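Amino Acid Chain and Its Fold in Token Form
===========================================
Structure side: the spatial fold of the chain, written down as a series of whole-number tokens.
Position: the record begins directly beneath this header, with no further notes in between.
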Amino acid sequence: MAGLRERKKEETRRRIAATAWRLFAERGFEAVTVNEIAEAAQVAKATLFSYFPTKESLALQGVGDDDLAGIVTGRTPGSTPLGALRAHFRALAAGPMTGLDPEVLVSRVRVIFDSPALSNATNSLLYQQRERLAQALTAELGERTAVLAAAQISASVVTLQEGFFRRLADGTSPADARARLGEEIELAFDLLTHGLGGLGGHDQHGHDGHDGHDGHHGHDQGVQRNQRGQ
């Protein structure tokens, strides 16, 4: 009996979510009320709120769900935080998009991009994700460095995801969008690992960006300092 009840709950949850997304896609997030979603899904308003505490939570399922902190703390011995995160996102880009209808995904992306309320709610979720990552890094890097590192990592991840979703929304095929995402993941984590000092141009003192040291050397020194003293 318990298994049957759980299946019915999951069916109800999915029906509410699917109904909400259909209405959001047709009319936009702001134009749809919770009462309309409940009525169309054939559930009481109280039932809807027992599954989704806010209207925003209906629209933002999956946003900020990447457990960056868990990836860092659960990584294999000997691997670095950046190495574990790179491997995670590399696997996501290379793996199959199981359970995802590209057309549904694109419609959801457009709804979120077009809604100021959802954009603000998304930023809040991503902020919480960044805070958890900083906490996970603190034991190894110290609080100050962990906060800055988490900010850089999170900004890169968000930029990668936004680029992927915008390409889908603009009509790029899922295969091409994923191929581009895979390339950008490697670039992003190379930049996180080696820094920006080796990029073109000159600094304010007229020296080139390397300043006499290559990116790998500077990164290695920084990691050593963090592990020793922070």
In short: Confidence is low (pLDDT under 50) at residues 202-230. The CA atoms of residues 153 and 192 lie 7 Å apart. The radius of gyration is 21 Å.
